[in-house]
């Protein structure tokens, strides 16, 4: 048994709770569950993605999600107009591309500046060869 800790919950700060919940419900195609006003949980595999209303700054980097249907999530992200417009290693970040490390992915940002990356579950790079 590993002594390394396990991640079970990640908080995402937002400044408009209602807007955030509508955004993530559409992007994830899931209702999530209200814990109390100002906190909503979305089950993302074994990790809880917790949307919390506060005046904090966005997370510093991206949160990476493994998805079985990358095109479906991409379509919803495009509809929500949240695709990033810069590049990652020479390819457009807001388009589905195969990255140099072999993952098919795209990058997005929620309305509050939090970075998100969606990766085709069949192409995950975990550092193992």
Q: Helices, strands, pairings?
A:
Blueprint: E1 9-14, H1 17-28, E2 33-36, E3 39-44, E4 47-53, E5 62-67, H2 70-79, E6 87-88, E7 91-92, E8 97-98, E9 104-109, E10 115-120
Parallel strand pairs: 1-4, 5-10
Antiparallel strand pairs: 2-3, 3-4, 6-7, 8-9, 9-10
Q: What is the CATH architecture descriptor?
A: Roll
CATH fold title: 2,3-Dihydroxybiphenyl 1,2-Dioxygenase, domain 1
Order of helices and strands: EHEEEEHEEEEE
Query: Strand sequence of the main sheet, in spatial order?
Result: 1-4-3-2
Helical content stands at 10-25%
- Unreliable spans are none
- Briefly, what CATH class? Alpha Beta
- The CATH superfamily appears as 2,3-Dihydroxybiphenyl 1,2-Dioxygenase, domain 1
C-alpha termini separation: 22 Å
* Counted beta strands: 10
Largest sheet: 4 strands, mixed
Number of domains: 1
Rg on CA atoms, Å:
15 Å
Number of helices: 2
Shape: globular
- Based on secondary structure, the structural category is alpha+beta
Average pLDDT metric: 96
Fraction in beta strands: 35-45%
Walk me through this protein's architecture.
The chain has 129 residues and is α+β, with helices and mostly antiparallel strands. The chain has one domain (9-123): Roll (2,3-Dihydroxybiphenyl 1,2-Dioxygenase, domain 1). 17% of the residues lie in helices and 36% in strands. It has helices at 17-28, 70-79, and strands at 9-14, 33-36, 39-44, 47-53, 62-67, 87-88, 91-92, 97-98, 104-109, 115-120. The strands form 3 sheets. It has a 4-stranded mixed sheet. The protein is globular.
